Automatic annotation (TrEMBL):
Its EC number is 2.1.1.228. Monomer. It comes from Exophiala viscosa. It is an enzyme of class 2 (transferase). Belongs to the TRM5 / TYW2 family. Belongs to the class I-like SAM-binding methyltransferase superfamily. TRM5/TYW2 family. It holds the Pfam family TRM5-TYW2_MTfase. InterPro entries: MeTrfase_TRM5/TYW2 (IPR030382), SAM-dependent_MTases_sf (IPR029063), TRM5-TYW2-like_MTfase (IPR056743), TRM5/TYW2-like_N (IPR056744), tRNA_Gua_MeTrfase_euk (IPR025792). It catalyses: guanosine(37) in tRNA + S-adenosyl-L-methionine = N(1)-methylguanosine(37) in tRNA + S-adenosyl-L-homocysteine + H(+). Residues 170-486 form the SAM-dependent methyltransferase TRM5/TYW2-type domain. This is tRNA (guanine(37)-N1)-methyltransferase. One of its GO terms (molecular function) is tRNA (guanine(37)-N1)-methyltransferase activity.
Length: 493
């Protein structure tokens, strides 16, 4: 019998149908291609979560295998013939409770255990040679088996595509998931909160923002309501190798901006001085400090300032990052003046480690080598970058740059190698007919506030406008980076 089985498997490998097999792809439960048979029951009127409602029995066929030595081979053949059920995360290999010690493979819905005409040549041969035996199998799926998207699609009202914004698209900050629910979803808000909580193991609190950020608070904080879990917004967040601790309800943080944060601070060079005017809890300042960039970081929000100070200590960047709690317009001027008067020096010590087993002579040699490898970073007397990350209103602070370097022309080109600093301005821009029109409008607005003509094609400005993200259907967020115009920097205040 064993020889017959080996011969059969060899013949299967040599069949032309298996030489160029069509292997069906695995379908995920979230996929739009998920067959209706595997979709959860629908209830558009559910207001309180009833998990038992989602129990569903799906009639399938299964190929039972009693010889455990054949499991691997049978799996390969069923995969090649596309007979095995491939829906992630449903496990196709199961214990066969009808045959002690046997296992079974779940088969695709088109296969009926008692109808050989629905069997593929591979299944027929496996049954003929008694390698496998087909049997009916009732697959039971419950609330725990379906994804968050599956459940929400089954319980939320059907909304026109142009108004639909899936609540599953939440943002996560530490253990907090926050959503911005549109009006049609509000009657289902607690139901949505519970599903999000159940389906995301790292989430313990779900909140809904009740107003847009910035519309109610100068600190970009927001009123919120708890949809599920405790009212605990004290979070721990990791970004760019740094740890931040803060109360999400009292400061501004957007996890979706991590890539943008990195793009900018990675452009700063070691030893440069950066003025972070609206620093928040430090997503630019702290990673920059780790890169040995001198940062003067400021935020008007006392809670942001406290979290920033904590992050400086927690991430060990106190040699490079200074925190302030001041009005942004005033900070631009005071920080620029203070930097010119009292720049810092940081001694970078060698990382040479001395072995405990080293002799006294070896220790002295190591210490001397370490001392020789020490170097000092001198903080410049002028900033190379100003970061203004307050998209709703930072543009209004540009007038603070008028005369900020008045009387200091000799500190910059062409008298020295020091160029005038870059201003990195984050701002919202209305969506217009095309990108060029948006750029031109952005330049026009900047010009009005800074008091000088700002053009993309001005070689003295090295200007770039970068699209960051779509904030709303008709509103974009840009980062406009340009050198401070000489006519502004050296103007009489």
């Amino acid at each position: 019998m064993a020889a017959l089985v080996r011969s059969f498997l060899t013949r299967l490998q040599n069949l032309s149908i298996l030489q160029t097999p069509t292997i069906s792809r695995t379908i995920k439960m979230n996929s739009a291609d998920l067959p209706e048979l595997f979709q959860p029951p629908v209830s558009r009127s559910m207001k309180t979560l009833d998990k038992s409602f989602f129990r569903k029995v799906i009639p399938l066929a299964a190929a039972s295998v009693s010889d455990m030595k054949q499991i691997t081979n049978v799996r390969k053949e069923l995969e090649k013939s596309s007979d095995m059920l491939k829906i992630n995360p449903i496990k196709p290999l199961r214990e066969d409770e009808t045959m002690p010690g046997a296992k079974c493979f779940l088969l695709t819905p088109g296969v009926a255990a008692n109808e050989p005409k629905t069997w593929s040549p591979t299944i027929s041969r496996l049954v003929e040679l008694k390698i496998a035996k087909l049997r009916p199998y009732d697959l039971t799926l419950t609330y725990d088996d379906w994804t968050m998207h599956n459940i929400l699609e089954a319980i939320l009202p059907e909304i026109p595509d142009d108004e639909k914004e899936t609540p599953a698209g939440f943002a996560q900050v530490g253990h907090v998931a926050h959503v911005n629910l549109r009006t049609p979803y509000l009657p289902y808000k607690y139901l949505i909160g519970q599903v999000l909580l159940d389906k995301n193991p790292n989430v313990t609190t779900v909140i809904n923002k009740t107003f847009d950020v910035g519309t109610e608070s100068v600190f970009r904080t927001f009123p919120y309501e708890v949809l599920a879990g405790p009212d605990d917004l004290d979070v721990v967040v990791h970004e760019s190798g740094c740890e931040f601790r803060f109360n999400f309800g009292k400061v501004y943080w957007n996890s979706r901006l991590g890539t943008e944060h990195a793009r900018l601070f990675e452009s700063f060079r070691e030893g440069e001085a950066v003025c972070d005017v609206m620093a928040g809890v430090g997503p630019f300042a702290i990673p920059a400090g780790k890169r040995k960039v001198f940062v003067w970081a400021n935020d008007l929000n006392p809670d942001s300032y406290d979290a920033l100070q904590d992050a400086i200590v927690r991430n060990k960047v106190s040699d490079f990052v200074i925190a302030s709690c001041d009005d942004g317009r005033n900070f631009v001027r005071t920080a620029t003046t203070k930097l010119s008067q009292n720049p810092r020096k940081v001694v970078l010590k060698s990382r040479v480690k001395i072995s405990r087993k080293a002799s006294e002579d070896e220790k002295r040699a190591f210490q001397e080598a370490a001392k020789n490898e020490e170097r000092t970073l001198d903080e410049p007397t002028a900033f190379s970058h100003y970061v203004m990350n307050l998209p709703a209103s930072a543009i209004e602070f540009l007038d603070a740059f008028k005369g900020v370097y008045y009387g200091r022309e000799a500190d910059f080109e062409p008298h020295t190698r020091q160029k005038l600093p870059f201003v990195h301005l984050y701002l919202f821009q209305a969506k217009l007919d095309n990108e060029q029109a948006e750029y031109e409008d952005t330049c026009k607005r900047i010009s009005e506030h800074i008091g000088a003509e700002i053009r993309l094609d001005d070689p003295q400005l090295d200007m770039q406008i970068r699209y960051v993200r779509l904030v709303a259907p008709k509103k974009k967020m840009f980062c406009a980076s340009f050198r401070l115009p000489a006519s502004v920097a050296f103007a009489q205040p």
